[in-house]
Write the structure tokens for this entry.
Amino acid sequence: MLLEINQLYKSFPQADHGQIDVLKNINLEIHEGETVAVVGQSGSGKSTLLSLMAGLDRQSSGSLRLREQEISEMSELKLTQFRAENIGIIFQQFYLMPHLTALENVSLPLEMFGNKDHQKRAKEALLQVGLSEREQHFPHQLSGGESQRVAIARAVVTRPSILLADEPTGNLDNETGVHVANLLFDLVQTTGMTLLLVTHNMEMALRCSRQLTLQFGTFQ
Amino acid sequence: MKNPSSLFWPKLALRELLNNQRFSLFFLFNLALGLAGFIALDSFKESLDVHLGKNSQTILGADLALTSYVPIDDQTLRKLESNFPESTLSTQKISLFTMVASKERSVLVQVTGIEEEFPFYGRLILEKGGTVQPQFIRQNLDMRGDAWIYPELFTMLDIKEGGSVVIGEKSFPVTDSVIDDPSSSLSSFGLAPRIYLGLSDILETGLLSKKSRVSYQHLYRFPDETDLTVLVGTLKNKIRKFDGSYSKIRVLTHKRAANNLGRVMGYLNDYLGLVALIAVFLAGIGAAYLFRNYLVHRFREMSILMSLGATRQQTYRLVLWQLGLLGTGAALISIIISLGILPLLEILLEQFLPRGFETQVNVSSLIFALVLGSIGSLVFCLPVLTRIRSVQPLRLLHENTGNHEVEVSLWSQALSYLPLIILSWLLSVWQSHSLIVGSTFVGMLLLAILILGTLAWGILMFAGKLSQTSGNTIKRLAFRNLQRNRAGAISCFLALALGTLLINLIPQIYQGIQEEISRPDDYRIPSLFLFDIQPEQLDHLQNILAEENTQLNYISPMVRARLEKVNGTKYKSEFEEGLRTREQEREQGFRMRTLNLSYRTRLSDSELIVEGRQLAENYDWNSGSMAEVSLEERFAERMGLKLGDLLTFNVHEVPVEAKVVNLRKVKWNSFQPNFFILFQPGVLEQAPATFLASLGGLDKTRRMYFQNLIVNEFPNVSVIDVTRTVERVLKISDQMVLALRFMAYLSIMAGLVVVFSIARHEVEGRLWELNLLKVLGAKFSDIQKMIQIEFAVLGIYAGIFGVGLSLVMSYGIAWWFFENLWEWTWQISLASVAGVTTLSVAVAWLATRRTLRISPLNLLRSS
């Protein structure tokens, strides 16, 4: 078992001193190599679930275990390290560092942890996403699709156990979106990586091995 | 997992800065301009210290001097010289201030008698004779009885080379002029020009016995390996054991002599430094504002880094590297700018500098600049850095729910300002060499910022209210912008208001002093001031003046004495340890002074008792009661004396006890003969005394006439032309104020750069909405008008409140330091408000005109 979620709750305080439960009694198991799509309407709690899985936020109660380690029990420092080693994240808006080239963006997570092969592995990752000719380009010189491919290369370059993607084609036109989705699924298939995809796009969700619908904070 | 390479974070920091060139350039230039004045001053001070250090032996003309106001007898001298190494060389010098006369004119000079070995270091250079060799002094001064004079005396005495001057009872031929004197004090600001005579000749003038103050100096040159510190200690111990006047022999080392010379410049430097510190402060405000905006825009990149595995500490490290790089860069630029300021300072302060002084940039100044740049930028931006705590990678996810704000506690915010306050305080105290002045300065600056900040807040709130009621759309939008962009508006307001405060404060204080010195209320400035009148000369002098239909005013006896005991305990006249602050220096100066006592039946118009009662009429030696004494208020404070203290004076070896019965405030600018210590009549009448007096109501011709008359008849009596002295004091203070103003203008320039940076930044931050206004039909002129209204409001209020605060502060300073010499010069105030408003609008126009002209289409594309 790669990921195991039990009775997970997440609530946020409100201005009127009350609180809103965004996630309620979530239970989920994801196996290694599985591709899972979480769909749901805006405000259903998809991104909150993703943020908890990525260790970017802490649950209010319940358990969230990745590789048999309880994420909520980790210190911030340990969690940061654990995330860097095990989790790759792809954002809707790419979030590349504007002052770094494509190659530097991809090698950044490796370089940050003193990996001596960062340059070589980043080049390999860019090759995998078909951008080896654009490695010296800066984000503003890349199209939306290219930027997202660089972001994908950056997410996979550390060879994480699980790839978390938050609406990866949400900022792209249809044609480019399909192209990027193809690339993502090919990559996951080739590397045997686990994928958890949060999306509105049912077409893309259906390409995953499992689809979960989140509504009012619980799986339907 | 390993740590990244050591260059990873600095490289990443540099890449980010290079990618944000506009911010980096503004930050660098802003901080560099603020630092430049400060760095230039530091280099200037260092150069002065180096110059004085290098030339200290030349300044004294020896390694060590024993000085006394009475001749040191052979026996005493032998006791002291027995401690010196065998091959020590010695020579003697006697100097005194006196009047010299030519046929037509007379002038106060410093007459110095020297022997052939003088000086041991450096050489006198004569106009005709060139560099003076030892035997030349013997042949010309000692044997032929010539006089060498400073060149300005040719004009002052209206004589030519070969003419003669009368000094005391003897006439001396002037055979040459001194064009370089390494032992002279300052380039042009000396009390009186100098005349050199042979040592035997000065004895023949007959002045030594009639002058109240003659300096006898024995100069020594030691072998190179001599340990001066040990020697000085031994000499001081021996001198302490001497009785009477010999216990007051001073041991002057060449280093101390150089320090004494640098003191005038040191005081001026202190205040210039404080003014320059305001420029640093203004630049700091601008830098902090710019950095705040930069940081907020970098939050996303920080979140990305954190989502990729960077810890929060690592993001702090990245930002700290950026601040370090910016600070170092700013310091390097400031060094370059300071190279341009240094020669200007040299020109502005020429009058106060030693001869042969040259400015240079020292390694220590460079290190200081780099440290101040990097630490300063960090400390100024520290309050902003606390915002990094609110960086949340969670925000990168597209659908964000709930409130993720991380509240920074009030304590953390307050604590983040603490290093800034401590650094400012340390810099101020270090700069002013005074705990009191430095602390007061920082206190006043913080108070000013607090008051102005509160006022700015109020104005912005008021602007918000106006935005609801104003009928004009452009005005409404301008007022609304002011209210919502509070950080920028308050930073601009502070920069402008503090600049105005400074620019208005200096002339405001100076104006008051100038007014009082030149035309004091209620007092008539005397024309001539006479001192060293012997008791037996007084009647004769009065008779001669009566024949000329004039009379002496304020005739005051002056008795020299030393303070031996206070309340029965020996009074400590010298600090054992080194002097660290200006207060200690001043107190030491006061304590070492030989005191001048006087006595009066009643106080003069310029005196007022602030504590205690009037002195009793006449002292009765048989009454068994204690004699009564009155002390000047500040003198008592500095000497550590208070009402009711029992003082024991040594008056020409006779102990005289007296009780302090009152403390007086003295209006020194009355130019009347006033004293720190006044005895009741009947105590000092039998003690050897000289007299002071003044003559009033004389025009220029009559002043010279009476001066010549007195000098011819009474060669030992010294005469000071008060009008000329006042003119000279004003000229010197003009020069000082010019230097201070220069630093103040540098500060206002730093403030304007802040306004420029903020204006540009604000407009760029609002591009989208400005563009929207254009799309909705607003004309370019409307938008420009809106920006101008915003900066005009800031300028006018900053001007008014800056001026207002400067008036309050100048009044406070005048009341505290200058006995309330205050006068409001409304012209300066009005000009300041108008000037600041115009500059604010003009700078904002300059900063924003290009951005505002960009077509809305371009803006839409770029956004």
